[in-house]
Structure formats: C-alpha cells, structure tokens
Write a structure and sequence with these properties.
2 copies of one chain form a homodimer. By secondary structure, chain A is an alpha+beta fold. In chain A, strands 1-8-3-6 form a 4-stranded antiparallel beta sheet. In chain A, strands 2-7-4-5 form a 4-stranded antiparallel beta sheet. A 3-stranded antiparallel beta sheet of chain A has the order 9-11-10. In chain A, strand 4 and strand 5 form a beta hairpin. The radius of gyration of chain A is 18 Å and the shape is elongated. The N terminus of chain A is likely disordered. At the A-B interface, helix 2, helix 3 and helix 5 of A face helix 2, helix 3 and helix 5 of B. The structure holds a DNA duplex (30 and 30 nucleotides).
Chain lengths: 237, 237
DNA sequence: CGGTTTGTTGACATAGTTCAAACAGTGTGG
DNA sequence: CCACACTGTTTGAACTATGTCAACAAACCG
C-alpha cells in the first residue's frame, strides 16, 4: 500500500512510458550521473500501486528490481495491459501531465523515482539527458509498433509464443518465471484467460514447453516457438 | 517512381517513426530553423515508394502535403499498416539504421527530407532540436499505445468508428476523404477487407454515416460513433 | 482446515474470416 | 464511343478461432 504519490507542481510534457533502454544499460554515457542526481529510491511490495492512471504525473520511474505491470482501464471495464516493465526500463508518463496507465508491482522490487519537473528541466538544459530520454522514447516506440503488429495480425498461439520468447530473453535461467497471472497475460495479448490457458496446455501437449509449475515454464522446443512467432518483429532485437 | 533513396554513411540511433507533433505545429519554437536548415523538399506522386522496409535509413521525412502509408510485411506475406501519416507528421526510422516500414504515397504530396546523420548530429549538439525530437517521439509513443489498446480490446465496429473519428479530426470539411483503400484500412485495423466493407455498410444502414462515394464519407451521427469508439484513447486528444 | 483466488477444461455461441460471386468505377484500344 | 479488362468494393454463405458460460481442480491464505 506504499504511497509513491504526488507532491508538488506539474509540468508540461515529458514523454516517457514503457520499456526503454531495455537490457542495454549502455548509451547512458556520462549523463547517467545527471539522472542519478535526481533519483530517489523506493521499495515496493507485491501488489503495490506505484501510480494510478489519470493522476497528476509529478514523478516518473525506473525499475531497478522486480516486475511492474502497466495497465489501462477502458470505460466499460475491459482492461488492457500495456506492458510489463523490468529492471532498466523507465515508465511513468505521457503528454498532458497525467499518468497514462496504472503501475502495479507484480512482485517485491525497487524503483527509482525522478521528479518530472526536474527531469524536464534537466532535459531542456542538458543535452546528454535529453538524448538519453530521446533514445529511450525511440526504443519504446519501436517496441510499441511491434506490439501493435502482433496484436493486429497474429493468432493466439503466435502471440503466446512471441510473449514467451520475449520473456525468455529477459530471463537468465533456463526456465521462465511468470510474475503475472493468466489474466494479466490475456489482457496483455488481447486474449481471454481461457484462451491463454488452453494455448499453454496445447504447447505443453505438443512438447514445446514444460510447466515446472503454473508460474514457471521451460522452453523445450524454442525453434518451433520461434517459427510460430515469426512475424513478431520484437524478436529481432 | 521517384527515387528518394540512400546516399551516404549511416549513423546510430535517431528514433523517429510515425505520427508526431501531429496537427500541433506548435512546440517547434526557435529550433524550427535548425531543422529547416537540414531540410530538402521532395514531390511525390500517388503510389510512389518513399522508403522501403529494411533499407538503410539515411534520411528521414516529414509530410508537408498528402497522405503516406507506413506498412510492414510479415514473413508469411501478411501486411500490417502501422500508420497513415499526414502533414506535420514525421516518419522514417527506428533504431539500427534500417527503415522499420515501407512508406508509400497514397496521393500526390510533398515531403521534407532530413539527413539522419545531420539530424542526429544536430540533436546531439542542439538542445532545442533534441527536445523537439524527444517530444515528437513521446507523442508517437502515446499514439502507439492507444493503437495497441484499440487492437487488443476493441471489436470491428469499435475500431472502425475510432478510425473514422480519427480521420475526421484531421479533416477540415464535413466529409472525410479516404485516400486509402479498404485493404489498407483492414491492414491498419487488423481486419479483413470484407469486415471493413461490411461494417461500413452496417454504419450506413444504421444512419451513422453517409457515403458520398466509396472514398468519401460524411458522419451523420457522430455521437453514436463516439459512444462506440469509447475506449479508444486516441480520441481524447 | 474452510474459504477464496487462480488455473484448467469442456460445451456452446459468435464475431470475424474465408471462399466465392456479383457489381461498380476506370482506363484502354479498337 | 463502346466493349473489354482491371481493380476495388460489396454482399452472401459456410467455416473457424476465439469468446462466453460453467464446472471443477489446484494453489494460496488466513
């Protein structure tokens, strides 16, 4: 129930939201320090809401440890999970000073907070900082486009395969940890819980994966999964 | 058949692709001149390919007049239309120096070319330019997220309604001009030609729209369309 | 433990696709 | 100027992937 919430004045536009700089911590250059100067660290527990869709966005964040779900609620109650963000990723804003999405911790973790106002000022003044943010936004944008393509053209199995492979890339070990529920996956891939579950079962039956337990999956036939997810551009990266 | 193509060396990352700065030409500030210094103007004819997916991205573009379709081809031949870009919008790049999508003119128009190398240099050096690009990327990102949500959760009618309303905002007159084919719309919305056509017919039957001709539509009941598209975040803007 | 949430599986409904055919608009050559 | 071919659009009918509803099983939690 941690309250990482508003404090002061809001400010124009600082476009940050979603996966950024990704695994590649490079490119931070010497401006890392400039960013660090503005940073404050916060510990979050599983289930914590870090920021809420529609609230004034005074601070933005960067994941240090853990996994955070960004989601948006549609007027009629349907939910869309925009992204799952992992260590290294920024999240936390959009244009008009309001959070675009709600961010909730899927597991205990640590996030760094940046004052949006200060960050905006820093970006306006410091080229290095501006370029970091610019590149981060660009990376996010490419990822978002790839996701749009996935959602627009791929079938359920293809989406799932792409999703699992994407997670696999972020994971060190042989088995993938899923900090998110089936519902989260469904809302991320534009599928229902049932379809996600069934597709996973089907993968298992076909020997593509092995379920260590519900939230832990081992890829036993990566090649087939890749063939299936072919079409998902995000895999290239 | 105009050849707006490669010339020289490529360069790191300059994240630009898609709708940006949108209708709002504001925010360009005094750096407009900096950008303008790098600009070259090109005339394009209907059907012209301005750049091709996968080619080295030495230049990026900004639409001055006309409408341009950005699309990506999946390995199995399916196509995804990433966006339709209109005057004011930038397009033309992604990370690793290759075009993310193919850009084709849907009608005669004019585009401004910027050397990516020079632009990158300018961004590295000139804060104002960097910030323009940063904000542009941020705006694109928000739009891309909204699109992902649309594709993930909305039904055919909802997508169509959102699409038409989106076009309406970009159009001055009472009737919407559709420079793109039904196939383009389908590949943009993740639907088939037939579904697009049927949904349009259904809208017509329900009195929501009137077809001046195939490529020209008047919204006769905007309210209902808006109610339908509710859920599409892009409308807020 | 008993209750609650989360995941799996089945039977059925349906939105959207696929296949197919008719139509309309546009351009071309005779 | 008309016949023809072409391309894009509309419409119909059958099919299928995915959603919906519902029951159950498993994991989780106090």
């Amino acid at each position: 129930m941690l309250a990482v919430q508003q404090a002061a004045t809001s400010h124009p536009m600082l476009p940050i939201m979603g996966r950024q700089l990704g695994r590649t911590t490079s490119g931070l250059g010497n401006a890392q320090s400039e960013l660090d100067r503005l940073a404050g660290t916060v510990r979050v527990a599983r289930g914590d809401t870090i920021c809420h869709e529609g609230d004034d966005a005074d601070v933005c964040f960067r994941v240090v440890a853990g996994c955070i779900r960004l989601s948006k609620l549609l007027p009629d109650g349907r939910r869309h999970v925009i992204d799952f963000v992992y260590p290294g990723d920024f999240f936390g804003l959009v244009d008009d000073g309001e959070y675009e999405a709600t961010a909730e911790a899927l597991e205990a973790g640590i996030v760094t907070r940046y004052s949006r106002r200060q960050l905006e000022v820093a970006a306006e003044r410091d080229i290095a900082t501006c370029n970091i943010l610019r590149r981060a936004a660009g990376a996010s944008l490419a990822a978002a486009h790839a996701r749009a393509t996935t959602l627009a053209r791929l079938g359920a199995a293809e989406r799932l395969a792409a999703f699992l492979l994407g997670l696999a890339k972020r994971t060190k070990g042989a088995t993938i940890m899923l900090p998110m529920s089936r519902a989260d996956i469904g809302d991320y891939l534009g599928l229902t819980i049932e379809t996600v579950s069934r597709t996973i079962s089907q993968f298992k039956a076909r020997g593509l994966i092995r379920l260590v337990d519900t939230r832990q999956i081992a890829l036993t036939n990566r090649q087939s999964l890749e063939a299936m997810a072919e079409g998902d551009i995000a895999l290239a990266a």
